Amino acid sequence: DPMSRTALVTGISGQDGRFLQAWLLSQGYRVVGTTHRKPDQDTPTGAEAMVVPLDDPAAIESVVRSVQPD
User: Fold this and answer.
1) What are phi and psi of 41, to 5 degrees?
2) How sure is the predictor about 12, in pLDDT bands with cuts at 50, 70 and 90?
C-alpha cells in the first residue's frame, strides 16, 4: 500500500528529482528529499526537504536511518 510508504529522493532541487517527487506524491507516498543547498520554492507541497551533503557518508547514513524509506 503506497499510502504507508516513504520514499527518499536525492537531488530534489534538480529537474529529475522534482518530477520524481511530484509523481510519488501523486501516488500517495510520504516523500523526503535531500539537497546540498537550502530547499527552495521548487520543493513540491507535501514533500519534506533536508540539506545533506552527499559527500558525507555519515550524514547519508543518518538520513536513511531517520527516514526509514521503503
Assistant:
1) -70, -10
2) confident
